């Protein structure tokens, strides 16, 4: 139960970072170099996905097994997407790649915890 609470907090952090990124995008909307179309698309999708992920985490923490599976799938996909975003040269500005790195660092322990073998869980 404690580890699930920790995962919910990490996902909340992911939501906060994602929403702050969306706010940053709006503030700097007139700077096409800082907020190109790729950032608008990815940033908006991440903000929405983070809220859905938070919903899955909260419901999984209440014992809903289907939500645990959904949380496992979504966080794993998001983590892989983050790695790809960071690795792609030139498509995203450095500030956005750094933000994605922070999101990845928040999601990594969640993915690891959710994908441990059942015998390892304690």
Structure commentary:
The protein has 122 residues and is mainly α. It is 78% helix and 0% strand. The chain has four helices and no strands. It has helices at 2-27, 37-61, 65-87, 94-114. Helix 3 (65-87) packs antiparallel against helix 4. The longest helix is centred in the N-terminal third of the chain and has 26 residues, at 2-27.
Q: For the record, give the distance between the C-alpha atoms at the N and C termini, rounded to a whole number.
A: 10 Å
What is the residue-mean pLDDT, rounded to a whole number? 92
- Which regions have little confidence, pLDDT < 50, spanning 5+ residues? none
Count of DSSP strands: 0
Structural class by helix and strand composition = mainly alpha
Beta-strand residue fraction:
under 5%
Helical coverage, percent range: over 70%
**Count of DSSP-assigned helices:** 4
Concise summary:
This protein has 122 residues and is mainly α.
Which tags fit this structure?
mainly alpha; 122 residues
Q: How are the secondary structure elements laid out?
A:
Layout: H1 2-27, H2 37-61, H3 65-87, H4 94-114
